[in-house]
Write a structure and sequence with these properties.
Blueprint (H helix, E strand, L loop, with lengths): L2 H9 L11 H15 L2 H9 L13 H14 L4 H9 L11 H9 L5 H14 L23 H12 L12 H11 L15
Helix pairs in contact: 4-5, 4-8, 5-9, 6-7, 7-8
The structure holds fe (ii) ion (2 copies).
Length: 200
Amino acid sequence: MSHDSHAEVEDRAVFRSMMEGTAEDWAIISRDYNAFASTLADRVLTHLRLLDGDFGGFPVDRLTHSLQCATRAHRDGRGETYVIMALLHDIGDTLGTYNHPEVAAAIVKPFVTEEEHWICQNHGAFQGYYYFHFLGMDRNMRDRFRDDPHYAACAEFCEKYDQSAFDPDYDTLPLSFFEPMLRRVMAKPLKRQPTSAVAA
Ligand SMILES: [Fe+2]
Ligand SMILES: [Fe+2]
């Protein structure tokens, strides 16, 4: 066996189905998974940048809206996990055009508090308070969550940071300001996620 082919064998698991898997296979996969997980923030930043120049008819593009939402939350004294949730709350727009809050919520879930995750997941209905009535919809759709303990927090997020983040003249902080914060928040999940041991 040549050195090269030996290295190749060492680099990848050899099973053809998981039923044949061995501890050696999974040591290789775990090592690669840990390296892959360490660059999650880079992939999130790349995806967030897809919102750059995407106006969708709004006064600011979706990246500026996201940055302004995060800037307002940061200047209001919110903690880092909250600010990162604000930064990423609309990151699902590109792939989750019909359910963007759920896409964003799934991305931030390992790294934010339960309440911050809830805000991200449900902000669409609460944001609707400010425009659903212009589209023939019920602006009070958020009332279905009236009895939820996170209702007030989500209403506050939309009022203070989300519905107010469409001002082209606001002094919005650049993405570079939030990058170190994003890397800190995404460096390690708050708790182990049961469905993502090695993302097999
Ligand atoms: Fe949204
Ligand atoms: Fe938004």
